[in-house]
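We treat protein structure as text, and this decision shapes the records that our systems exchange. Such a record has a labelled line for the sequence and another for the backbone structure tokens. The record that follows is passed on verbatim for readers who wish to inspect the format:
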Amino acid sequence: MLAAMPCAAKAGTVPGPADEPADAAPAAVVTVSGSRQERSTVEDDPRRTPTSAYRVTGEQFEQQNVTSLEDLQQLVPGLNVQSTDPADMQITLRGIGDGGGQTSGEQNIGMPGSVAVYLDGVYLARPGMLSSLGDLAWADVLSGAQGTMFGANSTGGVLDLHTKEPTFVPEASISASVGQHDYERVRAVVSGPLSEHWAGRLNLISSSNGGAVTNVRNGHQLNGARSNGARGQLLFRDGDRFRLRLSADYNNANSEPTPVLVATHAVNGTDAYLVRSARVGNNVLYGSTVDLDDETSTHIVQGGVAARAEWLLGSGWRLRSITSYRYFHSAPSLADYQSVQLYANSGFQQHDRSWSQDLRVDAPTGGPVDYAFGLTYLGQKLEIEAHTRYADTTLPDIWLGTATGVSRKLDVIRQGLLRDRSLSPFAQGTWHAREDIDITAGVRFNHEERGGSFVRYNRSPFNSGYLQITNNLPSATVAATWRAAPGLSTYAAASYGEKAGGLNISSGAAAQAGLDSLIIRPEKARSGELGVKADLADNRLNLKADIFLSQVRDFQTQGYDPVDQQVYLLNAGAYISRGAEASVHWTPTRAWQIDASAVFNDTYYTDYRTARCPPEVLLAPNAPKSCDLSGEGVFNAPRVTANASVRYEWNAAGLKNFVAGRYAWRSWMYGTVDNSQFSRVPGYGLAAFSAGTSGRTDKGEWTASLWLNNAFDKTYYKRLVNNEYGSVTGYLGEQRTLGVTLGYRY
């Protein structure tokens, strides 16, 4: 299932630059080639720190029917992805990730995530910019602070994804999948030469799925999504001296993210949600059915262009340049999720534009030191406009407990602006101290200038004016690798990183809290790791294990100010992530492929004394102004995640056949930053099975497969959120889905 990336390459290898083209996938790594049982060794960047990493190849994405980042967490242990729609996604690795937005329900778009996402070397300012996982060559999931080789905010880790590039051999493929619950997915790819030096590639994807939520008022199936996208590429190649890869992509997506009522709670003998519902005539339904007079819908348009140029200079020097521009526009219409009208046509529009320029120089390899240095520039402009429009009735005031007429037809408007610029030089290299010992070290210095404003109208009016902050963010890493024996290596690594500061431009603080309440300081992370890797039984058995410890200070999350009694995003003390992980890949024969991996992760606050109290405390009499969560677990951090898969292949009657199965387990976790018992996400395991066959024709190969996701129809929640008056709402995960995929390629 996964390829565990090993330690740095031995001295004397001649690797290419980082982020090698897809048809020359990196790594002094062992990768699983899926239908081929042998594992091929390919070269990796010797300057990359040899810390824990998992690789999933494009073939494995197709075999496992993985089409989104949320699906990827079923293959990679320690990875946690929470998403309701592309505009609202949090990624966590080993318990380190995005800390904002889970209690108030507002996304903080002025604060970057701790796990950075890169696509073909381009930093994505928000994870939702990765619209689809189609046509991938491979994806690396790297844990720990990675800020020296990856220049933006990667204190928790990196998702480094690479698409397939144009080929000079003609090829084309088409696949179509259909399944239960209106599941459909069609993908078409064509690639080939355009002239002696030019090749092109076009990838088209259309997908849709029905939702697991039924609105009993009109019979609509909600929580589904539809997406259409295209990605075109041109490749110019002048022998080994120069390569230019141009790409452009576009995606248009619509969805109906709809939470369901999971539970209501009585505090001090009173269930306030049921009491308020009775007063306004709200029909209370639990589970996968809702009664809504209005329905949420989101519309997202995004895309971008990029140019990647690589020169092979004299004496083995290499120069790489990556230039990019991306845009992201989200325009949701939000409902109040009740059966009576409390809000009317509310929404939260976001318009995000980002651009970058990355330069990297690689020194000649093969000597005692392999090193690289470079410079990265990132820019971003973000604009938001949010409306909370109350209905033209008396119901909003009854529901909120405000005086008659206070909320009627009220439109609370919030406008935010963010401008971000950063420039960061870096250098990193590996010293081959002996034939069996490598020392890797790197440093990056990121100068960041950020400005923005927040304005609120019609309720608690507030105007920050234009604010500016400047931060200098250092990152550093050092690691030692010892190849103790053929097929056996160990490593020790330490790193330090800082994530960019932020501004509260979507959920700003109250006026009396002062302008300082809008500014979020940089988040700081220190990480250490010890690991071992062994290749046994003629490389048919591959083992990997490590222990890790990370400390995060100035955690950027949601907190509570006891003086002003306001909830907003701020820096909240410190926490520790520590644990161990292990993985095994075994091919006992050419017909069998067996993979298993697991992570134990103990993540807890060492200092969080002014946290927002959970509703079970806030709704009780004489509730304190804030709560102390020091010593308690961090949210979005399951203690145990584990994955296992098996695949068996055989030939019969001229056909290639296979059967496969996988199982992914994760233990319970706190779903909101206040560590509420109401919103604890229960642990769950998901099983998937597939079987298929393929055969050759005169010009190509056809494939057919049958697959079953969530085979045991486990009811699970992607996210649980504390809502009004002690109620808890949740976003349901995938239902059991039986489907078939047919494909043809030549």
The helical segments are 58-63, 69-72, 272-280, 395-400, 615-618. The domain at 3-507+518-745 is CATH 2.40.170.20 (Maltoporin; Chain A). The radius of gyration is 26 Å.
